[in-house]
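Worked problem 6 (solution included).
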Amino acid sequence: MSQKSIYEIEVKSIQGESGTLAPYKGKVMLIVNTATGCGFAPQFKGLQKLHDAYREQGFAVLGFPCSQFANQEKSVDSEIAQACEINFGVSFPLFSKVNVKGREAHPLFQLLTEEARGVLGSKSVKWNFTKFLVDRQGNIVKRFGPADEPAKIEDDIIRLLQMPSPT
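Solution. The predicted structure is:
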């Protein structure tokens, strides 16, 4: 059985609409597991800044709320969306709350953690705001830890945006 491409994995928007990441084909993506109640939540502002600065060049931040770490996320998607918009000015795409580790991990995060290992080769996501950088071809290029500020990722984003788009 062949592994699904990142663009074929089913995801659900925070508004509850089912789809895939196919609309992001040919774009550079930064996929982040988020939590509005986390100490790293101020990173939402930095993530939004990156999204705003580079979206016209084919870049998107995609937020996937998760409540697996100290239950730091709201219980329902509508509350999450509201908190992200009001508290952090988030307008980048958000998706329905998912699990990012363990047997119940969402297939997207199973793929991301298989392709981009963490410290000492670990697969498991260790905390909120783990970030995965994906190139225009859908390859998972690099993983960034929760403490890595969004600004630290900017050079990697620029480098990928300067690479030729797939035909």
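Discussion: The beta strands are 10-12, 18-20, 28-34, 59-65, 131-134, 140-144.
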